[in-house]
Write a structure and sequence with these properties.
Elements: E1 7-9, H1 18-27, E2 52-58, E3 74-76, E4 96-100, H2 106-116, H3 124-133, E5 139-143, E6 146-154, E7 162-170, H4 179-187, E8 198-203, H5 208-221, E9 222-232, H6 246-251, H7 258-261, E10 266-270, E11 273-276, E12 281-284, H8 287-290, H9 299-310, H10 323-337, E13 345-347, H11 353-368, E14 373-376, H12 385-390, H13 394-397, E15 407-410, H14 422-431, E16 442-445, E17 448-449, E18 455-456, H15 459-471, E19 475-479, E20 503-506, E21 519-522, H16 542-555, H17 560-583, E22 585-590, E23 593-598, H18 603-613, E24 616-617, E25 619-621, E26 627-630, H19 638-660, E27 666-668, E28 672-678, E29 687-693, E30 698-701, E31 707-714, E32 716-721, E33 727-731, E34 735-738, E35 744-748, E36 752-759, H20 777-786, E37 788-791, H21 797-812, E38 821-823, E39 830-834, H22 836-839, H23 841-847, H24 850-860, E40 864-874, E41 882-885, H25 887-895, E42 902-908, E43 919-921, H26 941-944, H27 955-965, E44 977-981, E45 986-988, E46 997-1006, H28 1042-1046, E47 1049-1051, H29 1055-1060, E48 1068-1073, E49 1076-1085, E50 1089-1094, E51 1099-1103, ...
Helix pairs in contact: 2-3, 4-5, 9-16, 10-16, 17-19, 18-19
């Protein structure tokens, strides 16, 4: 075997020049070690024992530093002496102490070996001997009193210059933090190794983790590492294997795969659980690669199978007729094909999925006479040659041994990015006779590419694909082998798209019991193969017929399973999305096949390994195994599902935290770089970073989950607080701190080097904006220009289907017209349902969804509340139109909305296409205010919601707007969404198509833009049309546990504090916390705080200054109405000062402020009185007195008097703009 390159690290201390020493090392030659050894174990299983072991020889370790002076333990706390370069890579490693093993450590070492699941346990007696008789060469790593790692070694008597490593073990909590290598460094530094010049170990060639450890150790010491064959299997009597995986390594082919990912021997399985022969229990999120949809050994399937076997039912029958086959065919037709109006012949091609695909190819080519077949990028269809030719995975195709022909590859949905429609590309290839693509016999499709990376196609894309294939008379083959049988919800994955495939391939969970079984479904006219043209010995697997029939009867006679799959799929998706947000990734899937793709292509495999260590079996998929694929049994309980998801979250944290926390890893971008020095793994409660901001660059930052303290070492620049606009100069020696709310911009005039401390520690991929803007800067610019933003993937298709089902249920409950319900003119059909965020838990959650709320917040620049919510139904063939209008002019002014600070979002719950009356918008029209034509009749809303006749622009105005901006009708699949400005012209035509259109419509208004009484003196519209409670819908308190949240004292400026403000004892308030809704009961209200209690008994205190339960200001010095100071239009004193310039005591005048509102409404006039005599003597302000600043719109700002002179009063504003001191001329103060 060719030796691997590598070396062993230079000694910690040396009496020789380094170059001299390295030359001396290179001259040394290793001797062969003849003693039987135990393989070195660390990190990855060595159970896949190769036929030959490799021995690692590390050249000389003479003069290594002695870390064990006088037998006292050496403590390593992550601090590195300046002269100790060899341990520099451990600068930020786990804080532990190293000492010689003692007899009392034997049990702890044994536990670590057993816990690892990959080390070969020796006898307990062996570990006692190692800790007693070999303690001088056995080292343990301790965190406090806990043993978290060990290395056992000995010095062969005939080779005193050698230390031989026996085993290395690390506790789960301390893995992937460099501890194994530090143990090796400690080992070669003990007094017993003072004369040692060589370190030896044995590693199986396939054990890459252990090999990597020793190679890295060699690189640390900068000396050669020599590898040679050590032991062969013939040197040891095979007998009964002592290693539980040894027999597989010795006897089974190298092609074995899954057992390498999950290196243990399983003995038992039931439902969602598996057990190995050591008694370890696992949750199965792999489900036999999708062949165990109903779980392991499902009793509902096992019982009829056992009865059939006990009755001597026919097991093998080729394709002869049996009672088992007959019952399956009848049941499949009655429960699956019949209810779906599907007319297909059932062909039994062989027992596996690839057999079903091969049969489909044979039929398609025979029927059409064309050899070419189209397949998609990232497809997987099987491992036999015909199926393999269709498969995209290069590593699979490489094993074919022959040229894989007669297949044309086309890009799958989204393969070329979101901007390019791959159906257009496919059509171009078919239409252009010079494209070089032969007209294919068929195109084979997976609606969800499971092995390809959980790539999901949309229903509109699928329908366009089917229409295109029909036009060119190309057969459509749907490979539903892995995602059929209920995996996505319906029995067939293509049902929601309305596809009518020519051929369907089924296998995997068709038997329901993990028994091999496959069918190829053919339209009757395609059933052309003559008898015997597709033979196979195992086409009549009667045991599979029995279990498949039982599965259909138990799970597909009704629709409960399909509903459960969709519901559980949403649970999985929500959990994965939270993980993706924390660590950077992408979630995709349908039903109970969901994928989590990481930015780091190696992360998914690492997470899978971590999950297995924690008792979860989960595999990866994708071209580079970059996607973690969640594939649990469909019948898994909610508790077990949640447990498995928690393990995934823990595993991601362990894996990605370790990936990002590498001690020699630098992260950064063009304008900055950061080296991580002290990390979460050091258990200090914070992380320490050495960060450089390059000169002439600007970086926007917002660490919403962390507190940050910064010390500038060198350089010069500024920090600008985005919210307040304050600018601070930064130079060498400057220290500043930022809290969770400080969005800030760092500008480097000179290159700045900074030491940054984060609490809690910063882990995972580093992002300067943790939460990130909901829309990119480019998106916002386009929105400001056009007045709308369209997203094709705002919600998943599964989510949209769930929303639609809820909407239909709500509509079905309607018995007639009532407030909040609009009926279609001329029918009893429901046209609209209003105020869903108050009447439906589902739509309340949608209204609070960060995917909507965060965009609304970003676009409106403030906290938001739901102003209106509704479902609109536009039925097929006769759905009515809605004329052009601006929501602001047509509706919101009637409600008394003062400004254009509202944004609407329309979420498609069905396809939105050019035929079914999609929403149309006029780009740029939001920049022009167009008055409605004519007067609005009283109670106009009662009719306008059915047919819009008033409150619409003139045709001339519309023509001019359209001439300027054109018309756009954004289309998309279910789950797509359109955000648009409240003044944007929009409308929709009638629906003459056979495709109904349903959308969820939500209007978000700024909390700073609450509605007043209508300006025209008309009565306010009902609250189901215009919500007047401006309480924000979403109260994200903190991201910690509820217990931690409820022990905090919340400032009144916090959204939760805002929600509780003004409540009185006994009031109930429902808030959304990190673990769901929390109901609070208000207990106590006084001058300083409000106290509320949750159902679990925990309390939360909201601190405020000077606010009583009625919102007024408490005056500590006088039991009278507090002083009220009048402010100008700019919220602070600026506008007031401008208004009274040049006035003298005794003067008074009326000040008219300039028009502010786009619709021409002027602000109220403001009377300015300048007369000191108007201040009653008994209410003269005192220092410390709480007062109230009354803004022009009537809203108060709390303040405290800080200074009083004969001529002025100075107050500090208690306001989100806190920190501004306002100085008032006493002669300009009045009591309002």
């Amino acid at each position: 075997m060719t030796p691997l390159a590598g070396g062993v690290a230079q000694p910690h201390e040396t009496d020789h020049d380094n170059a001299e020493l390295r030359n001396l090392f290179r001259e040394c030659k290793a001797e062969t070690q003849e003693r039987p050894t135990e393989d070195v174990e660390y990190g990855q299983a060595s159970d896949d024992t190769d036929r030959h072991c490799q021995q690692y020889f590390f050249n000389p370790l003479k003069n290594s530093a002695n870390l064990f002076h006088d037998a006292e333990p050496a403590v390593c706390n992550g601090l590195v002496p300046a002269d100790n370069q060899s341990t520099a890579t451990h600068a930020s490693a786990l804080s532990v102490s190293f000492r010689a093993a003692e007899l009392s450590d034997a049990a702890a070492i044994w536990e670590l070996v057993v816990e690892s699941k990959v080390l070969d346990p020796n006898s307990r007696y062996c570990y006692l001997l190692l800790c007693r008789d070999f303690s001088d060469t056995c080292v343990v790593a301790c965190r406090g009193s806990e043993v978290v790692g060990f290395v056992t070694a000995y010095r062969p008597p005939e080779q005193p210059e050698v230390v031989f490593v026996w085993q290395i073990g690390i506790a789960k909590s301390a893995r992937r933090q460099g501890l194994a290598k530090r143990l090796l460094h400690s080992l070669v530094s003990v007094p017993a190794c003072k004369e040692v010049r060589f370190l030896q170990a044995t590693v199986t060639p396939s054990n890459e983790a252990s090999r990597g450890l020793f190679e890295s150790f060699a690189e640390d010491l900068d000396v050669p590492c020599r590898i040679r064959q050590g032991f062969t299997a013939e040197m040891f009597d095979p007998g009964e294997p002592t290693n539980m995986m040894e027999v597989f390594a010795e006897l089974e082919s190298e092609v074995r795969s899954y057992c390498r990912s999950f290196p243990t021997v399983f003995t038992k399985a039931q439902g969602h659980q598996m057990w190995d022969e050591r008694g370890n229990e696992y949750i199965d999120f792999f489900a036999g690669a999708g062949s165990l949809n109903y779980g392991h050994n499902n009793p509902k399937l096992k019982e009829p199978l056992l009865k059939y076997i006990e009755s001597d039912g026919v097991t093998h029958s080729l394709d002869m007729a049996t009672t088992a086959k007959r019952e399956f065919l009848q049941t499949f037709n009655r429960l699956v094909l019949g209810p779906r109006n599907m007319d297909y012949k059932v062909m039994f091609p062989g027992p596996t999925g690839t057999n079903a695909v091969e049969a489909a190819l044979k039929v398609a080519r025979m029927v059409t006479g064309r050899p070419n077949v189209m397949a998609f990028t990232n497809a997987f269809h099987g491992m036999t040659l015909g199926s393999l030719a269709l498969t995209g995975n290069g590593s699979k195709r490489d094993a074919a041994g022959v040229t894989l022909t007669d297949v044309t590859r086309m890009p799958y949905h989204g393969y070329m990015g979101s901007e390019l429609d791959t159906i257009d590309l496919l059509e171009q290839h078919l239409k252009n006779t010079s494209s070089g693509v032969d007209l294919p016999a068929a195109l084979i499709l997976e609606t969800v590419q499971a092995e390809g990376g959980v790539n999901v196609s949309t229903n509109p894309w699928l329908r366009r694909l089917q229409e295109l294939l029909k036009r060119y008379e190309i057969l459509l083959i749907v490979d539903d082998i892995q995602v059929g049988c209920g995996r996505t919800g319906p029995f067939f994955s293509f049902e929601s798209a309305g596809l009518e495939p020519d051929i369907i391939c089924l296998s995997k969970s068709l038997s329901g019991y993990g028994v091999p079984f496959a069918v190829t479904l053919l339209r009757p006219e395609l059933d052309v193969l003559e008898p015997g043209k597709h033979n196979g010995t195992f086409r009549g697997h009667n045991l599979a017929f029995v279990t498949a029939t039982a599965a259909l009867k138990n799970y597909w006679a009704k629709g409960e399973l399909s509903d459960d799959v969709k519901r559980r799929g949403q649970i999985v998706r929500n959990s994965l999305r939270e993980t993706a947000e924390n660590y950077g990734g992408n979630v995709r899937g349908r039903g109970l096949i969901q994928g989590l793709e990481f930015r780091d292509k190696d992360a998914a495999s690492e997470v899978s390994r971590e999950a297995f260590e924690r008792g979860l079996i989960i595999e990866t998929s994708g071209p580079q195994d970059e996607v973690l694929k969640v594939l649990p049994p469909l019948t898994i309980s909610d508790n077990a599902l949640q447990h498995g998801l928690e393990i995934i979250a823990e595993s991601v944290e362990a894996a990605l935290g370790a990936v990002a926390e590498g001690t020699d890893r630098e992260v950064g971008a063009e304008n900055w770089k950061s080296r991580r020095l002290l990390l979460r793994s050091d258990r200090m409660g914070f992380s320490l970073h050495d960060t450089t901001i390059h000169a002439g660059t600007t970086t926007e930052m917002h660490y919403q989950n962390h507190l940050e303290a910064v010390y500038c070492i060198e350089g010069k620049g500024t920090v600008t607080l985005v919210d307040s606009g304050e600018v601070f100069e930064i130079e060498a020696g400057t220290v500043y701190a930022l809290d969770l709310n400080d969005r800030h911009i760092l500008k480097a005039e000179e290159t700045m080097r900074m030491v940054c401390v984060f609490n809690p520690p910063l882990v995972g991929p580093e992002s300067h904006d943790e939460k990130g803007p909901a829309l990119s800067a480019e998106d916002v610019t386009a929105y400001e220009r056009n007045g709308f933003h369209h997203s094709q993937t705002l919600f998943s298709q599964d989510e949209a289907e769930g929303f639609l089902a809820e909407a239909k249920e709500l509509a079905a409950e309607v018995t007639g017209p009532k407030p909040g319900v609009v009926i279609e003119p001329g029918s009893n059909a429901v046209r609209s349902l209003f105020r869903l965020h108050r009447t439906s838990d589902t739509f309340r959650a949608v209204a609070q969804d960060p995917r909507l709320v965060n965009i609304a917040r970003q676009l409106l620049g403030s906290e938001v509340y739901v102003y209106q919510s509704r479902i609109n139904f536009k039925p097929a063939f006769d759905g009515k139109e809605f004329f052009w209008h601006s929501d602001f002019e047509t509706w919101h002014i009637e409600d008394g909305m003062p400004r254009m600070r509202a944004v609407s979002v329309s979420i498609s719950l069905t396809d939105s296409n050019e035929f079914n009356g999609p929403l149309m918008v006029v780009p740029g029209s939001h920049k022009h205010y167009v008055r409605c034509v004519g007067a609005t009749p009283e109670n106009h809303f009662e009719k306008s919601l059915k047919k819009q006749e008033y409150g619409v622009p003139s045709q001339e105005a519309m023509r001019e707007l359209v001439d300027r901006g054109g018309i756009v009708a954004p289309k998309g699949p279910p789950g797509s969404g359109l955000f648009f400005e409240c003044n944007l012209m929009h409308g929709s035509s009638g629906n003459l198509s056979p495709y109904p259109r349903t959308n969820l419509f939500i209007v978000y208004n700024s909390v700073e833009n609450g509605v007043h009484d209508p300006y025209g003196g008309t009565p306010a519209r009902p609250e189901f049309l215009s919500e007047r409670d401006v309480t924000p819908e979403v109260f994200q308190v903190v991201k910690e546990s509820q217990a931690d949240v409820l022990q905090n004292k919340i400032p009144v400026e916090n959204p939760m504090g805002q929600a509780l403000l003004g409540k009185t004892p006994g009031d109930k308030v429902l808030l959304s916390g990190p673990e769901g809704d929390i109901e609070f009961s208000v207990l106590e209200v006084n001058q300083e705080h409000l106290m509320a209690q949750a159902k679990n008994g925990s309390t939360v205190t909201v601190n405020y200054t000077g606010r009583l339960e009625d919102g007024s200001v408490f005056d500590e010095t006088q039991n009278k109405e507090p002083l009220r100071f009048v402010l100008g239009k700019d919220r602070l004193i600026k506008g007031f000062e401008q208004a009274v310039v040049g006035m003298s005591p005794g003067d008074s005048k009326t000040v008219k402020l300039p028009p502010e509102d786009a619709y021409g409404q002027k602000r109220d006039e403001m009377m300015v009185s300048v007369d000191r005599g108007k201040i009653p003597q008994d209410v003269q302000p005192q220092v410390g007195q709480r007062v109230e600043l009354k803004q022009q719109d009537g809203s108060p700002i709390g303040a405290t008097v800080t200074e009083v002179t004969d001529s002025t009063i100075v107050v500090d504003a208690n306001h989100p703009l806190a920190g501004h001191s306002l100085t008032f001329d006493i002669s300009m103060v009045e009591v309002s």
